[in-house]
Amino acid sequence: MTRLFRLTLVVATALASLSISQTTWGQNNGGIGGGNTTNDFAQPIAGVDIDATGVLKIRMFDPRVAQQRLMAARQQRGNDLMRPSKLRKVSLQRLEAAVNAQRENGGEISDDLRAMAGLTSIDYVFFYPETKDIVIAGPAEGFVADPTDRFVGMQTGQPTLLLEDVVTALRAYAPQAKPTNVISVSIDPTAEGLERLQQFLGSIRNVNRAMTPQIVAGLKNNLGLQTVTIKGVPTNTHFARVLVEADYRMKLVGIGLERLPVRMRSFVDRSTPGARGNNALERWYFQPRYDGISVSDDGLAMKINERDVELVGENERVVDGKRTVSGRANPASQGFCRDFTEKFPEIASKVRIFAEMRQLMNVAIAAAYIQEQDFYTQADWNMPVLGNEDAFSVGTYNAPEQVETAVNAVWRGNQLMTPLGGGVQMQPRKALSSSAVSVDASGDNKRILGESGPEGLKDGQWWWD
Predict the structure, then answer these.
(1) What's the domain of life for this entry (predicted)?
(2) From CA 170, how far away is CA 163, in angstroms rounded?
(3) Residue 231: inside a domain
């Protein structure tokens, strides 16, 4: 007698066209500057590459490169730039002038510019009417490039801001330009793929454990490649790639194909077999929490008080290859979203891609504030270099257009759960609405604005503590 099994299959998108390292570089033990970092740097460092045809490849980087770079960076700790700072200020116009000077001299952009003087977040936006400087500010620390040439702080292991990401955000909210309403990434199956998937599911009979490889292959082949849609920023930028990877990694966590270094239960762990039908989809997407912005009474100083990110779900069903929103809530999906949101600060401290996504959300809010306050006009600055792709290029990557499907088979019940689509969505201007912004009655923003301004800076100096 043949023993029959009930099969739970989980399907999600898997990335097929990224060129981003997936190392967390010492973040699990307190960062590069502390803990047993020698052992961290002795381990092979994995990343991903794509070739000219867009084929994804895993690449292992020599750990000796990381060790050598860390040792060299530690020798520069006496340098003011490499010292930790609770608040480092960067003038955007002076930054542009420094970039242009290096460009005109025919040299490559230096690491201090590329890493934004070691800023690990944007906490403030300031405008100084006397000098007409537009300034961003936040904590900073000494930094080092990992073997994939992405910068991380030597103390915390957190990623630094990247000049190219800041420029991408500023262009989304450029001088005299229509403001960008939404910056988003979505990874979605095609209608044809969903229809083939439904037909394939209807053909499955008398499932047993030995059929698992065939069923998994059938799901992947019938659903086929999924489509990446990027809005608000150019598709061939690092900014866009971070959002795509963050979405991808989140989905793999949800379906149990990736485990975070944080104690939490995935969607699969929480799911009850039979709770939903075979044509049910689960969509999850990241968005910033829009409250927590405070401004001075004159608008010259803005602070991002909160930097939380939330994961939200949207219930869907598939009928004849078309997705429709369902009003039914799924407790497993709700629990997964709730835990991911509550533990996001801890997750971001240990998994760099989520810290980078949070950074970009704050960068976009800062850029939107600069445009909304019309600091460009007040500063008489139209970003002649940073706003010009020919002068400073940020579109230097192969754009992700399609992804493959990943499948996780879990022998627990007879429900087929397919968390497909979703992504990352942000509406930076929403954070600046009257309902989300408060006036800083304490005067702290204005006090910090005036504590150390750009007056008296040396020629060529673009950052200060």
Answers:
(1) Bacteria
(2) 11
(3) yes
The DSSP symbol for 81 reads G
pLDDT of the chain along its 465 residues, tens only?
444 455 555 666 544 333 323 333 333 333 333 333 333 444 444 444 555 554 434 455 555 655 555 555 555 555 788 899 999 999 999 999 999 999 998 888 999 999 999 999 999 999 999 999 999 999 999 998 876 667 888 888 889 999 999 999 999 999 999 999 999 988 888 889 888 988 888 888 777 777 888 888 888 888 888 888 899 999 999 999 888 888 888 888 888 888 899 999 988 888 776 555 444 567 788 988 888 899 999 999 999 987 679 998 876 555 555 555 555 667 888 899 999 999 999 999 988 889 999 999 999 999 999 999 999 999 999 999 999 999 999 998 888 787 777 777 777 655 555 555 567 888 899 889 888 899 998 999 999 999 989 998 999 999 999
461 domain-assigned: no
d(CA 251, CA 100): 41
SS3 at position 396: coil
Helical H segments across 255-330, by residue range: 267-270
CA–CA distance from 111 to each of 70, 222, 429 (Å)? 14, 46, 31
- CB 42 within 8 Å of CB 287: no
Residue 390, burial from CB neighbour count under 10 angstroms (0-12, 13-18, 19+) = exposed
Rounded Cα–Cα distance for residues 17 and 412 (Å): 32
Answer yes or no: are the C-beta atoms of 223 and 186 closer than 8 Å.
Answer: no
What is the number of alpha carbons within 13 Å of residue 341 lying toward its C-beta? 17
Is 51 part of any domain? yes
Task: Please give the Cα distance from 202 to 219 (Å, whole number).
Answer: 12
- Tell me if 67 sits within 8 A of 146, measured CB to CB: no
Q: How many domains does the chain have?
A: 1
Phi, psi of 201 (to 5 degrees): -60, -40
460 within some domain: no
Task: Return d(Cα 337, Cα 46) in angstroms, integer.
Answer: 28
**Category of 443 on φ-ψ map: left (φ > 0), alpha (ψ -120 to 50) or beta:** left
Reduce the DSSP state of residue 156 to 3 states and report it.
coil
Distance in angstroms (rounded) separating the CA atoms of residues 384 and 392? 10
Residue with tokens 């759960």: 417
Residues present in the chain in total: 465
Residue 239: C-alpha distances to residues 95, 165, 180, 265, 407 (Å): 19, 5, 15, 29, 27
